[in-house]
Amino acid sequence: MVHPESDAITSRANDRVTRELTVRVTALARAVPPAAPETLADQLLTAAHAALMADVNCGGLALGLHELDAEWDVEDADAVAAAIPARYRITYRTLAADLATPA
């Protein structure tokens, strides 16, 4: 699952605004014996991380993508499921008057 956490303005220059979008990626897994749910969630998070880092400029829409942190204290969703969240920061630039146009 991917959820936006925050979007902050970091600088302004003329008609350009640099922003930082923080997103949380959560790997959810249910136990499939003999594997533990934590092992499966870790594999999912590893694959998601590799996919994100394969294009740190998000197809030219972003200035960069950086991993912030991960919570290795596995959250037990229930007895047979686990959730491992990680956060990423996407830096991008827009026009001050138009949020949808990359600058």
Overall geometry comes to elongated
Largest sheet: 6 strands, antiparallel
Query: Would you tell me the structural class of the helices and strands?
Result: alpha+beta
Give helix % range: 10-25%
List the domain count as a whole number: 1
- List SSEs in N-to-C order: EEHEEEE
Distance between the termini: 28 Å
Low-confidence stretches: none
Whole-angstrom Rg: 17 Å
Beta-strand share of residues: over 45%
**What is the average of the pLDDT values?**
91
Structure description:
With 103 residues, the chain is α+β, with helices and mostly antiparallel strands. The protein contains one helix and six strands, in the order ββαββββ. Strands 1, 2, 3, 4, 5 and 6 form a six-stranded antiparallel beta sheet that branches. A hairpin with a 2-residue loop joins β5 (81-95) and β6 (98-102). The two termini are 28 Å apart. The relative contact order is 0.26.
